[in-house]
Design goal:
Length: 232
């Protein structure tokens, strides 16, 4: 993506956020892969929205990209698995084991076997390594801290964790500047131009009863800066 296109995406992200298009803003973050919104990620992990957590992160990395990515996916799926076990949803736990965790057995067969054995325990806290697992809320807080560290250490995320510094309402400012420029080109500019569309260039000539005689206006054409803002 060219650097101007990247910047255009950031302008749109800012606009979507300011206009509170809550789902769309995260979809675009993910689809463009340009900005990883840690705040949103934290929210999803804290609420245990594991499918969304994995979907979102998949916009930025795949399981086998590097060791950090592999660990990230493993931690997410392991937590999803433990939560299913903890609420005694055996069918779901088996599904997660087969669909999500099995692929890690090629890296570490021992861990996969141990995880399979947890299915037979009434409470996985009987296992020594998991004896400190508290309730779901505290377990999610711990896994979130681990995930954040892995994300911050992952080179694929390095330039994606910081939203660029730009003024509020930047897209709107640019549109206003463009409208002002279009009006500046009007041969017979109205004092209070009536802007009703962005779909085509503005011209005062198109509005009925649009203008005063040029001679009268000559002294009173406002400076461009004074015209701001058409859009509010
Ligand atoms: Zn005009």
């Amino acid at each position: 993506m060219s650097s101007l296109n990247r910047e255009a995406v950031f302008l749109i992200l800012q606009f979507l956020d300011e206009e509170k298009f809550k789902d769309t803003v995260h979809k675009l973050e993910k689809e463009s892969g340009l900005y990883f919104n840690m705040r949103y990620f934290e929210e999803c992990v804290t609420n245990g929205e594991w499918d969304e957590v994995e979907q979102y992160i998949s916009g930025f990395t795949k399981v086998d990209d590097n060791k950090f990515s592999m660990k990230i996916f493993f931690e997410i799926r392991k937590q999803k698995y433990l939560e299913a076990l903890d609420r005694h949803d055996h069918a779901k736990a088996v599904e997660i084991l087969v669909k999500d965790l099995k692929e890690f057995s090629k890296f570490n067969e021992g861990i996969f076997k141990e995880m399979t054995l947890l299915l037979n325990l009434g409470n996985f806290r009987e296992k020594e390594q998991l004896s400190k697992y508290g309730d779901t809320k505290s377990a999610r807080a711990i896994v979130l801290a681990v995930l954040k560290k892995l994300i911050e250490a992952n080179p694929l995320f390095h330039d994606k964790l910081q939203f660029p510094t730009l003024e509020n309402l930047r897209l709107r400012t640019l549109i206003n500047q463009s409208l002002n420029w279009q009006h500046h080109l009007c041969k017979r500019p109205r004092l209070n131009p009536d802007i009703r569309t962005l779909f085509e260039d503005h011209t005062c000539l198109k509005s009925p009863c649009a203008y005063l005689p040029v001679a009268i206006l000559a002294d009173s054409i406002p400076k461009v800066s004074a015209l701001l803002p058409f859009l509010r």
